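step: validate -> pass
step: tokenize input -> pass
step: predict -> running
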Amino acid sequence: MPQANIQTRHSSITDTLARLGATPCPDSAFTCVTLDMPLDHNAPVTASSATIPVVFGVLPASGLRKGMLVVAVGGPGSSGLALADAYVGAYDRRIRERFDIVFFDQRGTGLSRGIQCPQAAADYFAADTATHRRAGAPAQRAALLQAARAFVDACVTQTGAADLLPFLSTRQAVEDLERFRQIVGADRLWLYGESYGTQFVQAYATRYPAQTAGLVLDGAVDLTLSAVDYAAESALAFEDVLAQTLIACASNARCADDMGGDPDAAYDRLLASVDQGPVVFQFPLSTGEMVARQLSRSDIDTAVAGYLSAPDARLLVLRAIAAGARGDFVPFARLLYSALGLNADTLAVAPDPTYSDAAYYAVTCLDYAEDVGDSPLARGATWLNRGEAVLARAPRLGALFYSDLPCVFWPAVSRRNPRPGPFTAPGIAALVLAASADPLTPLANGQRVFSRLEDGYLITTRGGAHVMFGRGNRCVDNAVTRFLVEAIPPAQRQTSCEDIWVDDYVPIAPADMTRFADPLQAMRSLNDEIEHLPEYYYWDGVARLAVGCARGGRVSFEMRGERVVFALEACSFSRGLAFTGVGDYDLNADQFRLEGQVDGAAQGRLVYVRAGDGTAHVTGTYAGRPVDVAR
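step: predict -> pass
step: emit ->
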């Protein structure tokens, strides 16, 4: 097609957005348009009807336009607009060329009158509810219900939006998308949903099949499951993923060695150390000082569960288990604070504008208002009775079953929002992605969804992560790209892809400098510890970051163009080795460099470089001798 025609197609959506008063999305290549939607799509619209602003972001097709691709992200509670640029950056360029790509902040999230209750959520998930593992006595059951009720009361109050809560269901949000489609003049929508987003796009395609061109369900949710059944299946999947991760560790000599030979036994030792009450330990602040902190069994559960959904995150869990089994709880504390959104120095909640626990419960509790009892106490009994059976089968992580217990008390839940029937997508081609290592949307969900589709295709990844598209797995990414761009499904109804279960193990730093064979091994360990600090590993690169080193000192990080610049002040992860100096990580060359002064067991000055191929080289002086080691 001539370039002029391509530009005309491109300008069509651009002109439409301009007429709607669209403006650039904050710090984004997308263009944002805010549309006032009826607060209640089920009520007659009048001049005085309440409305809610819903924000959609559009990235017009850069080439010959095929259609409009709408991306519904996970959660519920996540801001689609906050994720849009990063997600699109991982897409094949042909998707960006052929589709107007749409992300949106679902009502109640982000820019769409987002609601928040971060303090209530942090308090609830940090509460020690380990007592429910012991016998299920009436007092313990009552304590669980009371904690859930207290969270709901606090969360609703902190949102300051009790009037909004009854209107945040997926059914209402689906109508927002349909109105957007009509307003921008799109014919039919291609829909990609991940995790909760699969729930959203299934609901849209069921309500508006004639307006749906095709579906990709990545980490599919089986909508026929009740909340209790879904929670039970997920808790058991978490238990299994942890077990398989420990098995993978046992087959890796370096991991098994760090665990003392038996990863299962190491994890059980760790749990035994906290089962009778919180452990107290010293935690390093970003100032370099140490303060007393404590961890409970529930904290361990929260930290582990927060990092079991992808191979790289599972590596951080294994390193934390290895350290914890030796009595070092700092790595677990780092994971916990990150999972709860806490400032590691002050333990104050650091609100996350890209995610909302309040919106999560508002949507989830409305969507799963199935008949499990006529009162909160009756609904609570249903949860607690099922929970005892789950805990019997999943003694390590079965407590995750209770994550949605607050729905027992959530306000404005109406039986008029019945659970949907089986999703069949008649006349619509649908691609389902599932992974055997996915604990959040277990493999069986995707298999059941696929089994009901009239024109469905299932891609199962052995290992992998929760949500597979855009992670660099060519088997998955190529199939999705071809399905979207060329409308060509996989050759077989069921396809298998391979992925890893956990990233290659990186040993934790030994307690003492004397364990290192030479300065290169010591510097390599320092390199590894810095790169696997959760605070740095998940850092967004925007604000300057400072982190305390495990055995004293600090390290700070700052982005300068395509480099991360480090500054270390007496930073120590092993006794007898403290490093003061500067360094950087070149993102393009994948090269890590440190230069500075070594103090402790001996003094010296070293320059360390780790190249992109994994080889490393250290030069300088140490203990009065020249150093020049490479391998």
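step: describe -> Residues 1-10, 130-135 have pLDDT under 50 and may be disordered.
step: cleanup -> pass
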